[in-house]
């Protein structure tokens, strides 16, 4: 589809145009850059949800969507799933669990595979957020599968990171190991109707009291996602954090950090693509890579305008 037609579909509010644009993002099509330049790049607030599997993240997000829709807000959800190492396909369980909103024009749900990116967060996710903002969504939710580094990397994309836990899953120890408390802006104890929920909340309070003092102290919200209990409190906690980001300057600092990280990721991606083209086009480089990938890498960096030693010194 021509870019002009795609931009027109965007402006007309055609969700098929949005879906096609995000597909182009996933394919790393250069046309996306021109489309974003034409549409402008308003960035909606992004709330990231992470936590161990089994804590009820998808059910919680589903309840928050209902709460926001009752307030008249348009909501988009990006569920980032791991890709199959064989087919490249993503696990679409989160999208299936949220199908109750399928007929609501004010809700858009998209599953995106990790595309091999370390930690599970795709480079395409950040551009998809910009497209959703250009389309007019008021809220964007980013949910990760909660495995490995994705729990930490969600904070690099989200404005507010919500860490979800549930009683009886041993999450306290895992949080200490992975440093999850450091990236949490809001802590949620879901399934609060189960035995052990209050004890889990008390353990979290103890951990927060032992952590270094910071200007923002993550609130602990008790929820029962299946019944919608605690959604008002969660919404209020998110609103307080947004107010803090705006008033303290932390929001601007995070935005600058996000842009620097994205620029570095793009440089890395483009350099990798250029290196692969050199290896395919130059038989001598290919043979050199078979014998010594280090020497081949230095030769590639030299041709790309930098030196291997300087690159190592910066690493």
Q: How does this structure look, described?
A:
- The protein has 315 residues and is an alpha/beta fold.
- It folds into three domains: 1-38, no CATH class; 41-248, Rossmann fold (3-Layer(aba) Sandwich), CATH 3.40.50; 257-314, no CATH class.
- It is 54% helix and 12% strand.
- It has helices at 3-11, 15-26, 31-39, 57-70, 93-97, 123-135, 150-153, 171-178, 180-183, 197-210, 231-248, 250-281, 283-291, 293-303, 308-314, and strands at residues 46-50, 75-81, 107-113, 139-144, 160-165, 186-189, 220-222.
- It has a seven-stranded parallel beta sheet, sandwiched between helices.
- Helix 10 (197-210) links the parallel strand 6 (186-189) and strand 7.
- It is globular, with a radius of gyration of 21 Å.
Short description, anyone?
This protein is α/β, with parallel strands linked by helices. The chain has 15 helices and seven strands.
Helix and strand layout, with pairings?
Blueprint: H1 3-11, H2 15-26, H3 31-39, E1 46-50, H4 57-70, E2 75-81, H5 93-97, E3 107-113, H6 123-135, E4 139-144, H7 150-153, E5 160-165, H8 171-178, H9 180-183, E6 186-189, H10 197-210, E7 220-222, H11 231-248, H12 250-281, H13 283-291, H14 293-303, H15 308-314
Parallel strand pairs: 1-4, 1-5, 2-3, 2-4, 5-6, 6-7
């Amino acid at each position: 589809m021509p870019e002009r037609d795609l931009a027109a579909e965007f402006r007309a509010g055609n969700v098929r145009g949005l879906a096609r644009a995000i597909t182009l993002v996933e394919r790393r099509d250069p046309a996306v850059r021109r489309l974003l330049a034409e549409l402008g790049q308003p960035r909606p607030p992004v709330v990231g949800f992470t936590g161990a599997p089994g804590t009820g993240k998808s059910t919680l997000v589903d309840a928050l969507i209902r709460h926001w829709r009752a307030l008249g807000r348009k909501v988009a959800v990006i569920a980032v799933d791991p890709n199959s190492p064989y087919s490249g396909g993503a696990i679409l369980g989160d999208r299936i669990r949220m199908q109750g909103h399928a007929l609501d024009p004010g809700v858009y749900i998209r599953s995106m595979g990790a595309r091999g990116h370390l930690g599970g967060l795709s480079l395409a996710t950040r551009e998809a957020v910009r497209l959703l903002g250009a389309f007019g969504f008021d809220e964007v939710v980013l949910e990760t599968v909660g495995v490995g580094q994705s729990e930490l990397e969600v904070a690099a994309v989200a404005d507010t990171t919500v860490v979800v836990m549930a009683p009886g899953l041993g999450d306290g120890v895992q949080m200490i190991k992975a440093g999850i408390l450091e990236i949490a802006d809001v802590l949620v104890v879901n399934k609060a109707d189960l035995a052990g929920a209050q004890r889990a909340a008390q353990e979290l309070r103890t951990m927060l009291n032992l952590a270094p003092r910071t200007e923002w102290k993550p609130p602990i919200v008790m929820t029962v996602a299946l019944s919608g209990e605690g959604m008002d409190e969660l919404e209020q906690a998110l609103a307080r954090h947004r107010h803090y980001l705006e008033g303290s300057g932390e929001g601007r600092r995070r935005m600058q950090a996000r842009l620097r990280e994205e620029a570095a990721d793009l440089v890395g991606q483009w350099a990798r693509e250029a290196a692969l083209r050199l290896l395919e086009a130059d038989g001598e480089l290919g043979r050199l890579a078979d014998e010594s990938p280090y020497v081949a890498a230095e030769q590639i960096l030299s041709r790309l305008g930098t030196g291997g030693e300087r690159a190592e010194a910066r690493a």
